[in-house]
Protein: NADPH-dependent FMN reductase-like domain-containing protein
Amino acid sequence: MKILAILASPRGTRGNTGRLLDEVLAGAREVGAETEVLSLSTLKVQPCVGCDNCHKTGICPINDDYEGIKEKLLACDGFILASPNYIFSVTAQMKALFDRCNGLIHCMALEGKYAAVVETSGGGEDADVISYMERVINTLGATSAGGIGSPVAGVRTFPDEATLYGKASALGRDLCRCISEKRRFPEQERFHEAFRSRMSGLVDFMKEFWSFERDYWQKRTLAR
Ligand SMILES: Cc1cc2nc3c(=O)[nH]c(=O)nc-3n(C[C@H](O)[C@H](O)[C@H](O)COP(=O)(O)O)c2cc1C
Structure:
């Protein structure tokens, strides 16, 4: 089982979020997963330019690391989104990646995959940032197995660290169990259903222009 983590701190794996992510990944490895971390600090993902090419061809024409990340997301069994809280939201690096995923979102292309969220902050609003990342996971068609977040106590240290790390490794194990069991989350299934109808409707409305997404939804509807 392959778990891909996308870490969006500019401090990379040496930061606080990287530290908490380590514990989640250790949990996943305990139950046999193979893990890989993609640190956006060492990759180039430029902001979306709104050219709509992804909707027309399925490919982003910006020449950077996005298409490689996309291929890895499509190939993994489960993924983890990890970001520090930057002004009540994710970092600009993560937001740029989310915007570039617009084509994947229109196709809900990660349907069937499970994901988890890791977040750290200087002082709070952890739940807001976690819930934002979980919403993105759901719009990609994937299902969230849960999230973990915490304010820091110092450099790469957290209050009540033993309890936090225990919960983090449990989340890593649980993500893998969700994948093996194909665990169902009725509330997220309802979200998926409503979003599927919204996205397929949008693509149908734009069918004259967005040929890749039109063909994608047509094939999917036939396969269902
Ligand atoms: C530009 C910037 C914005 C931040 N905004 C917030 C914020 O709104 N709320 C908060 O609690 N912490 C905020 N922080 C603190 C970081 O979330 C915190 O230090 C985090 O653990 C950093 O993780 P990292 O070491 O993985 O980069 C901010 C830090 C930076 C550099």
The mean pLDDT is 97. The two ends are 26 Å apart (CA to CA). The longest strand covers residues 143-151.
